[in-house]
From TrEMBL:
UniProt cross-references to PANTHER family, sorted A to Z: BLL6612 PROTEIN, BLL6612 PROTEIN-RELATED
All residue ranges annotated as the RNA polymerase sigma-70 region domain in the record: 17-78
InterPro entries associated with the record: DUF6596 (IPR046531), RNA_pol_sigma70_r2 (IPR007627), RNA_pol_sigma70_r4_t2 (IPR013249), RNA_pol_sigma_r2 (IPR013325), RNA_pol_sigma_r3/r4-like (IPR013324), TPR-like_helical_dom_sf (IPR011990), WH-like_DNA-bd_sf (IPR036388)
Biased composition (Acidic residues): 94-106
Species for this entry: Actinomycetospora lemnae
DUF6596 domain location: 186-281
The name this protein goes by in its record: Sigma factor
Length: 408
């Protein structure tokens, strides 16, 4: 055992290990609810014992073992669970993920977390339910966090997760490795899951582990399906975005917008890897949403400074993206490119058309405020910033918006 850990250390370890523990227990027990409850029990024990005893040398293994014992205790008290108890008691300890010789699962997916993503992305579930459920189980995100990622009310998201679990139980959807023939049908939901895990980790300074986990899953997917350009596109998108992390925070911890970042601080290795993946996608000539988003980020990454950005190319890529994956948020991002190529008045007309559909989205009001300011309509810009502030509780977003409002 190590020395007594701080509460911050325990919180970080719990966040990092949650998804792996739930995934492993789901495979062992064959029941998502039982696995999640058992992991929650283990986390409670950890939060009680670790402050005094110290963190075990292998905290993830400790949590899995403790959760498995708690699950067996539950099953022993439940006559209905006798068959499950026998199965779980016979189960060998989970294989070492980092040892390829210790992977004995049949099929192409050899990682518990990736297997759980594919399992939750069963075609019997609606796509939003697949993504929401896997975010809950993989990353341990709470319902409010998932609701923010989906831009829906918390109550709606809670119902969506409950319905997804009930559907899995009622339809007896198996927790198994998908066969090769099943992988393409599962892919869109899996990519959506991985990307939302990444965006949550990228947006939240305290959840960098989620961004790292998403990139790890993206690399596994690229190894599993090297001929799928959208898989490569997603990995490129995540790498190019993650490359900017060192420049996203000022010395005082405040967030720095893309236009103000010191590009010398970007991770050159991740940029180079991302650009290479984008070039590989272009050679395949099968554009999809993730490839196009990666290409947009590649244009930003290739410019030595903000002034040198090829906004015409970014606008053209947004036009393609809007054609293959139309959405109000894509249209809003396209409006930013329109502002740089056709001026703020043209962009404002687009943003105002999106106002009703994106009224709850604080970035719509933030973009609108910037366009109004550039047009000299300062009072309206201030009102738009107030509207943006009223629609976000994220401290980083609020700090940026307040700073902009105070500058006038």
């Amino acid at each position: 055992m190590t020395g007594p850990p701080s509460s911050a250390t325990i919180t970080r370890i719990v966040a990092e290990e949650y998804g792996r523990c739930v995934a492993t227990l789901t495979r062992v027990l064959g029941d998502i609810d039982l696995a999640e409850d058992a992991v929650q029990d283990a986390l409670t024990v950890a939060l009680t014992r670790w402050p005094g005893d110290g963190v075990p040398p292998n905290p993830g293994g400790w949590l899995v073992t403790t959760a498995r014992r708690r699950a067996l205790d539950r099953l022993r008290r439940d006559a209905v669970g006798r068959d499950k108890e026998a199965r779980a008691a016979r189960e060998e300890p989970p294989p070492d993920e980092d040892d390829p010789d210790d992977q004995d699962e049949e099929g192409p997916v050899h990682d518990d977390r990736l297997r759980l993503v594919f399992t939750c992305c069963h075609p019997a579930l609606a796509l939003p339910a697949r993504v929401a459920l896997t975010l809950r189980l993989l990353g341990g995100l709470e319902t409010p966090e998932i609701a923010r990622a989906f831009l829906v009310p918390e109550a709606t998201m809670a119902q969506r997760i409950v319905r997804a679990k009930n559907k899995i139980r009622a339809a007896r959807i198996p927790y198994r490795v998908p066969h090769d023939a099943d992988l393409p049908d599962r892919l869109p939901g899996v990519l959506a899951v991985v990307y939302l895990v990444f965006t949550e980790g990228h947006a939240t300074a305290t959840r960098e582990d989620l961004a790292a986990e998403a990139i790890r899953l993206g690399r596994l997917l690229a190894e599993l399906m090297p001929d799928e350009p959208e898989v490569l596109g997603l990995l490129a998108l995540m790498l190019l975005t993650e490359a900017r992390r060192p420049a996203r925070r000022a010395a005082d911890g405040s967030r720095v917008l893309l236009a103000d970042q010191d590009r010398a601080r970007w991770d050159a290795g991740l940029v180079a890897e991302g650009l290479d993946l984008v070039r590989r996608c272009l050679r395949r000539d099968r554009p999809g949403p993730y490839q196009l988003q990666a290409a947009i980020n590649a244009v930003h990454a290739s410019a030595p400074d903000t002034a040198s950005t090829d906004w015409g190319q970014i606008l053209a890529l947004h036009d393609q993206l809007l054609a293959v994956a139309p959405s109000p948020t894509v249209a809003l991002n396209r409006a930013v490119a329109v502002a740089e190529t056709a001026g703020p008045a043209a962009a404002l007309a687009i943003v105002d058309q999106l106002a009703e559909r994106l009224d709850r989205y604080h970035l719509l009001h933030a973009v609108r405020a910037d366009l109004l300011r550039r047009l000299g309509r300062d009072d309206e810009a201030r009102d738009a910033l107030d509207a943006a502030l009223a629609r976000t509780h994220d401290p980083d977003d609020r700090a940026l918006l307040i700073a902009r409002r105070d500058r006038g």
